[in-house]
Amino acid sequence: MNFFHFIGQNHAQVLELTLEHxxxxxxxxxxxxxxxxxxxxxxxxxxxxxxxxxxxxxxxxTIPSLAxxxxxxxxxxxxxxADRLAILALTLYALLPVIRNTYxxxxxxxxxxxxxxxxxxxxxxxxxxxxxxxxxxxxxxxxVRVAIVIxxxxxxxxxxxxAGGLGEFIFRGLAMVNNQLILAGAIPAALLALVADFxxxxxxxxxxxx
Length: 210
Fold this sequence. Notes:
By secondary structure, this protein is mostly helical. Helices cover 80% and strands 0% of the residues.
């Protein structure tokens, strides 16, 4: 049985697991943006706090994914639902690129432009929302793009704790030594990552200051 024959026979299950995968990636990216964007803004406005925040985010990135899932399993409420645990773990992994690119984007705005805004009487919040964030948006989106690609790849490992997603095919295929099953999980996951990378990259280029 070749790969395409397998997909044709199991298209309903492939679609179901793909939607589960998107669910995990979507929520984890959303939470990473909700947490990471304000953190990036905060450390950009108070650079002295940037080193500890970025260091913690970097340390999280170095923890092996299966180990992180294992650390979180005993946590009350989280360990009861595998999808909650997976979303939290994926959110933690996605934080670094969002925080770092938000910080870099805002700090990279030309100081002359900021001073011109101050000269026009803009308050700090007006400067942030009307000058700095619009000019830094393409850099921030670059971080979001990296976060999505990371989440798509790591979400396959979430199947190891029963969180679903395309990783179920991969783990089942490894257990059965079945290449069709492995490819049924790996190829759609790779396609999701490529589509997300291309789509957010296109948006990033469109919003780049000219």
